[in-house]
Design a protein that fits this description.
Layout (H helix, E strand, L loop, with lengths): L9 H11 L3 E5 H14 L4 E6 L6 H8 L4 E4 L2 H9 L7 E3 L6 H10 L3 E4 L2 H14 L3 E8 L9 E2 L9 E2 L3 H9 L4 E7 L3 E2 L4 H20 L7 E3 L17 H18 L4 E6 L1 H4 L3 E13 L2 E6 L22 E3 L7 E7 L8 E9 L6 E5 L20 E6 L2 E6 L13
Parallel strand pairs: 1-19, 2-3, 2-12, 3-4, 4-5, 5-6, 6-8, 6-9, 9-11, 11-12, 14-16
Antiparallel strand pairs: 1-13, 7-10, 13-14, 13-18, 15-18, 16-17, 19-20
Helix pairs in contact: 2-9, 5-6, 8-9
């Protein structure tokens, strides 16, 4: 069973806030390593875990995860640059995305990235054109959009009309087209049905869906596969009433499936991916109270950080606006009050907490918004109102390492029109 991680001491967060200023992202390397070990232990030994860089592309985090034997799942040219700078080798990269440009595909093929996922017939034709021009053979995988949908996913990525992948019923047409191409070889299958899943049986059903699809293609002679990606979607609880994903149950449900598939197809690699589960709980977003006030009976604390730097805490991407875990890094105050926590932006949407009960706050107090390691800064509209980016710090064996310096936006050149 998954369980809460051990938070760093309040005193350390307060010291880091003083040393580096706020807003500040703080990541605990030990938590990342703990979650990697737990997920690798849960999965079958033959399953290769890939880190979804979209969750947090900070190069130091990417390098830390890669050093633990986890490959990188990449979805953009800049993510590719980051992975390369972090030391990730092209043969350890899984490259996805429904809208890759021709220049992007040229670079992917020139680098020799091992797991290249194609998401449409037109993209497959673009790969053929590039490979033919370059005089190379390109090995690719197909992302499928299965008929099934992920029942327990907070965000469904398959099983409905989606821009991602190729509908299951269209596979024969695309496979036939691929078979007629001189420089393209379809060697992989990939699927991703949903994300932030907390039920072991739902993840197991998704795994079964992908393994069965791969088995059908190979049994019917439609494809000779070298790898199959079963997706991931391993969730963490953010809100009251949610429980941790039961990793023991997940292992009991999925390992026999993986074992049977590996016995039947020992030459086929199995890939799984995770972003949120590996990094979310490692991170805290620290903000400082600038002012407290009341408006029509509601108490507000106005801080120096907001949804421009942590949009998910403000409800972006969620149907319901619920609070992430939030703590005031103060001690010894018995009186408590209920607050709306806002940032400095000129929009009523800049609320990173609504109706949060905390010790009575004062100017200068530091708040920590937890579970900020995934889809924090990377998921936020950082250009809105042109505030500087926050620093990012990683705690390694009790010591802090600055892994992103504060960044001001460069002023564009002014041209006379």
């Amino acid at each position: 069973m998954g369980e809460p991680v051990q938070a760093l001491p309040y005193e350390l967060y307060q010291r880091l806030a003083r040393q580096y200023g706020t807003p500040l992202y703080v990541y605990d390397k030990a938590v990342i390593e703990q979650r990697i070990a737990q997920l690798q232990h849960c999965l079958h030994p033959e399953v290769r875990l890939c880190y979804s860089m979209k969750a947090n592309p900070n190069p130091s985090i990417v390098r830390t995860i890669y050093q633990h034997g986890v490959y990188s799942e990449i979805c953009s040219p800049l993510e590719l640059d980051i992975a390369l700078s972090a030391g990730v080798r092209p043969e350890h990269m899984l490259y996805l995305g429904p809208g890759k440009s021709m220049a992007e595909l040229e670079r992917i093929l020139s680098l020799g990235i091992r797991y290249v996922i194609v998401e449409s017939l037109q993209e497959l034709q673009a790969v053929q054109e590039i490979a033919s021009r370059r005089g190379i053979n390109a090995e690719v995988g197909l992302r499928i959009n299965p008929r099934e949908t992920a029942r327990g996913a907070r965000l469904k990525m398959g099983g409905a009309a989606r821009q991602f992948g190729i509908d299951e019923e269209q596979l024969p047409e695309v496979l036939a087209a691929g078979a007629s191409m001189s420089c393209v070889h379809i060697v992989g299958l990939h699927g991703y049905l949903g994300t932030r899943i907390l039920q072991a049986d739902t993840i197991a059903a998704n795994v079964r869906c992908m393994l069965d699809a791969a088995d059908r293609l190979m049994t019917e002679g439609q494809a000779v596969l070298r790898y199959v990606g079963v997706g991931g979607g391993f969730g963490i609880p953010y809100y009251p009433g949610e429980v941790y994903l039961d990793l023991d149950s997940l292992a009991a449900l999925t390992q026999p499936m993986f074992e049977a598939f590996c016995d039947q197809y020992p030459e086929v690699e199995i890939l799984a991916e995770s972003g949120r589960f590996l990094v979310a709980e490692s991170g805290s977003y620290l903000v400082q109270a600038r002012y407290t006030k009341q408006s029509q009976g509601v108490r507000f604390v106005i801080t120096d950080g907001g949804v421009h730097q942590f949009a998910a805490a403000g409800g972006a991407g969620s149907l319901a606006k619920r609070n992430y875990p939030i703590e005031a890094l103060v001690q010894g105050r018995e009186e408590r009050s209920t607050y709306h926590i806002s940032g400095p932006l000129c929009t009523p949407d800049d609320l990173i907490g609504r109706g949060v009960e905390l010790p009575s706050l004062q100017q200068g107090d530091v708040l920590a918004i937890r579970h900020a390691g995934a889809y924090g800064l990377t998921f936020s509209p950082v250009l809105f109102l042109s505030h500087p980016l926050p620093r990012e710090v990683m705690v390694v064996n009790g010591d802090a390492v600055l892994i992103r310096e504060v960044a001001e936006y460069a002023l564009p050149a002014v041209h006379t029109l």
